[in-house]
Amino acid sequence: MDETRLVERARAGDFDAFEELVTRTEGRIYSLLLRMTGNPEDARELLQETYLSAYKKLGSFRGNAAFSTWLYRIATNHALMRLRRKQPETVSWEELPLPSHEEIRQRGVSDWAVDPKEALLRREIRELLVRAIQDLPPLYRAVVLLRDVEGLSTADTAKILGTTEGAVKTRLHRARIHLREKLSPYFADGEERGGRAVIP
To answer: Which of 26, 55, 113, 145 could pair with 200 in a Cys bridge, judged by C-beta atoms 3.0 to 4.6 Å apart?
Structure first.
């Protein structure tokens, strides 16, 4: 049964249909929450909160986006709320100057480009990338995970985060620069070590 039909049945009160939707999506949602929080226990709790919220709000789902995109929004909101309670941001990255590509070059940051989703599958760089993403402020972490790891569009990411596509692009650019600088020492001699670059 396709997702649209399952959603229709779940909205009509068919709990089995909702459970099937959970089964089809929980792996991706848990993966996002784990990378957002860096804590399996938090991720499991937030996964439960996400589906509880989704079940309660199912009547408000209008099908303007995919059901999984709607779930990403609920999950991301829960994760951001928890992270704000645990790690209040003292400085907004929007207030920081954005280094130019020339400044990055002068700092000795290598030019490299790889698919982050592929990078996460490669054992030798997975931990480096995960730690670098964890260093990002929560909103920037969410943008990288949704756009570069989950592969969602700029438009869907903006809807999930309740912001504009322009803001998503700016945050993604800043986050990629941060990741470049964090990971550049590893990739400076990437060819000799068989490595490839991680974030374009």
So the answer is: 113
